[in-house]
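INFO worker-7 received task bundle
INFO bundle size: 2
INFO processing item 0
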Amino acid sequence: TVTGADLHYIGSITIDPALMAAADLHIYEQVQVVNVNNGARFETYVIPGNEGQGEICLNGAAARLAVPGDTVIIISYAQYEAAEIAAYHPRFVFVDERNRLTGDAPPAPGS
């Protein structure tokens, strides 16, 4: 859930470090953000917010694509060698309305 939108910050998406760790996201990593409420899709990069606050804040121009309370899906992508794909399992992180980890993620397709 989006908790803030700061049009006057240069860019990025600010994410609670606990959520970054759960999703294996790294500072400055490129992500795609999908706004479930309005269908907007955009790319930006991750910066850490305050630990334990559940922060998901869109910064810069992206702040025009969501408002606090909107539900977003944050997607990261990676490239793998063919040999690595066999052992790869996607990571899904699910949160409640306050962006607290719920641990109720369904199994990944094919796992």
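INFO item 0 finished
INFO processing item 1
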Amino acid sequence: MRSNERSDNMATMPKEPLAGVEKPYHLYHAEAHVLSGNLKHPVDQPIEHHARVVLKNRRSDHIMEKVEETSLEGLISFKAGHTRVSGTQLKNKKDLWGNDHSGWVTLSTSVIEGLNVFEVVTADRVVAQVSTEHASRKGDDSDRVPKVTFLGTRFENLRVGGFPVQVELDFGICGERPKDDRSYLQHPDFLDRVRRQLDDIAGAKGIPGELEKQYDAKVAYIDDLKKRANGRAKGDRNGYPKLQCSLVKSIGPIPIPGVRTFGNIIFIPDFGTVALAEIEVGITPGNKDLPEEIRASSPADLGDSNYFTLNMLNMHLGCIAGGTLTGASVTANGSHGPGH
């Protein structure tokens, strides 16, 4: 009788995990801040990263930071701002059409309200938001490369010199997640969309020569990425690739003498340039800049990851003011550990 009891117990005991097999996990990474920059004149003053938040760990979490009314020497001000980042694992999550959304979702948001930059650029509210979704499926369609969305991003009552600026955004610029787990920087449809966007700016009537050269170089860089994606390029590119594009589809006319728009860029005489809704898409190597406690327990082969950074306002100031300013900035990506 005891022998039978022992056999039954042995049959129902859970199996020990195989030696050397690591449990799969996801490393969340999200960052956000409200405002940063560096003023050169009329005062020389660095602008700290207001309400900066960072999520970089394996644990699902939610972090939020607020900043109250702020004035920088009366030159740049905003009434309020807040940021939040979160990482969540979804299990058995399907939408109304039966699409499976099980996996890891990273969300990064930055909101600035009542912005006033030298009485020239103002906005009631600017929202930057990016979210990535890494599906937990296994097999050939393993999602090391995420689906990305910028839904929620917007300008509310953006004005230049008191005149409203009508901005149309294209939330589909990045498109669907690339097949076969290829990087977005190897995805021909995405690269073609970015190239067309850059071509439109480089070929715009009246574009300054220096700006035209910059965008011609960006077009050549896209062509090089396309060749590398098809295996036709020679030599190795130094470092990890990245590219810049924009959510902006169009900007309406601004009835101020001398004000011009080139793609997502507004040129304002005696003030400088304002770039709207700039995106940077790049690759972060595995284990880069990880906290020591995570680095020590992470495998050496933690996969590289696509990151997505969105800066809603990127200003280069000249004439009545000098310096740089970034408003409403967010970043999201993530990496899979073993087993994915």
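INFO item 1 finished
INFO post-check item 1: The longest helix spans residues 209-229.
INFO post-check item 1: The radius of gyration is 24 Å.
INFO worker-7 idle
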